[in-house]
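Hello forum,

I keep getting stuck at the same step: I have a sequence, I want structure tokens, and every attempt I make locally crashes halfway through. Rather than fight my setup again tonight, could one of you with a working pipeline run this one for me? It's a single chain of 402 residues.
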Amino acid sequence: MDPRSQRMLLVVLIMVLTILLCKDFGESGTVRRLTQHAASFAGRKANEASQHTAFEPANATLGVSDFKTQSGVQLLANTVAVQFGAVIAVSRQQSPRRDGLLLAANITEIDISIPTQPVWTPEDISNLHAEHVSTITRGSTLAWLGHLNALRAFLGSSASTALIIEDDVDWDIHLRTTQIPATASAFRSLTSNFSPYSLDADNYWGNTSAWDILWLGTCNEYFLPNALRHPSLTYTDSTLPPLDKLDPRTAEFFATFNIPSHTRLLHPTVFPLCTFGYALTRPAAHRLLNEIAAREAEGGTMAYDVRVLEACRDLGMRCWSVAPELMRHLDAKSEIESVDKGKEDQNGGSNEGSNTGLMAHTANIDCGVRSHEAFFTKDPERLEYLQEVVGRQGRCLPHENS
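Reply #2:
Ran it on my machine without issues. Output:
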């Protein structure tokens, strides 16, 4: 069983025990509905895009060869950071996943920064481990250090918010044009109930003093209705797959809450797992980097994502989740598992975690920009075509074997 599956099993067991003991939070069987269609945000897209805060590297270590991939394809100039101050990818040097990540960013015109990771020393690894009863593996340690490196990059910039993603995530071709605007509007509506704000460049995601972490990419987050806390709401998203096309566990979860097709649930975090994509504010990043996740907790922590889960569940961080997730990992071999099996290269990773052998579909994502073979190209003219037809017009091209 790979580390991700082990963590899922552990959290599910904890979740079941907790739910059996938890009290009913009241009104938990219902969610408030936001009757706004994703398409209604299109008219404001150009104006809002001009308001996003630019990501300013604190030093020359941010970015990788001006965002050039190893195959020579560069990010085009008209990308944006999906209304966060920065989108920062956790990706080690020479990661075989990086080409696919940046090609997807090109197609959907999302500006991604990749902070350079140092070669982690034995001292770096030792300092992350708990002094007493450490349970974390080498592969999970290296992944944890990569996330801390991303947090430092964020805090070294002038950005007020950041979306941190792992380099094996997939997302829908409508992420920037439809899904992010719809989610941000729902989030502003939700948080404005207890924290008024005025919409400007720094408040696209509401009052940033009112929240810490927004989970956009998890391994699915399941819980029973009596664990749902408020305020929560649902909002329409026509780009979602219908219920019968969702991951079976997600479909069952939505059936429990009587949530219809093409609808997302935005709610206070209960049991998130996997840090595929999580947005956070500067105070939250500072607390994770210097306090909560500075090292493994005494008694052992399986992985960084488990520690962030504990921050949300037990340590007072104000966390929110979107279901189904907007980002999900590709069906490729786990780099953590490969490192733990001794298949580690000189850069502290494994080439087994590459983009080869992908599924034709990523669960809970209708048209994944990285799981569609027709979207992979190194031809600049083809790339510009994909930007226009796929990224801007939102057309999911037929698979080559269709």
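Confidence is low (pLDDT under 50) at residues 11-79, 353-359. If your local run keeps crashing, start a new thread with the error log.
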